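Write out the 3D structure for:
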Amino acid sequence: MARNVGNLAERGEDPNTQLLLISHEIRETESDLNIARTRQRLSNVSLVLGPVLLVVLFELFWFLRGHRNLMLAIYIPGGLLAVSFAIASAKLKMTPGGPPVEGPLVQRMGFLEFHPRRSESELELQLARLRDNRKVIAGAAETSIKVRRIAYRDEAYDDINNFREESARYRRVNNILQSILIIGSLAATAAASITGEIPDVRWATVAITFTVGIASGFMGYFKYKERSFYLQQTADTIESERETVEVGVGRYAREEDENVRLALFVEEVHRLKSEQKKRQQNLEQPPDSHSSQE
């Protein structure tokens, strides 16, 4: 992990260099914190999916009795998948936190050995401390407004990536739910058509219909498609604005002063990000709130 920022001033480094170093360490800590949170979410998902899959396999047993080949085709991969979820959940729960800490230290749990990891709370505390230190250093650096605008322009690339990653995540969720709707609707129709010949299938029809209803409700309430669309739109607009100011075309071609072009760019990107936050807030409101405001 990066160096101790508290010793930067003692080493005689100028404030601008300190600002660059602490900004880099903040990004490293944010990355480690994201890893810790992702591992926490995966451990919870694995902990839930394992028992749910076992319950599904148990319920299917009563419908598949007498169909040996079909049971083997379902239970062998299903059982292996349930065991995999259990192992993944146990490993993630026993070793929470971010990436392994570099060094010879080893954490022992019975006959197992792991490299220690910093917990999510420790990373959050370190990140808060680094941001406080950065405020102090930034005040001492007295960086010119032009340098800050150039840094803001360069950081726009990170904003674009963040918006696109978040958009891709919402799009994946929407595609999964949409697939459940399509496949579930067809499966429910097919199961309902053979209920007269195989009465036990009616329970499968109920389960499929219930799943389709849940997927439809989640799509309508959380608006994954709209969230993905607006995030992608904002990312594309910021990227277009960044390319325009770099090559000096469009409205930036009319300004010969670099400071004026940077000021216009910062103002436009700030406006786009503010509009995205407002759209996000509107999407997070329940449908009743929208109708009452109208």
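The longest helix spans residues 15-64.
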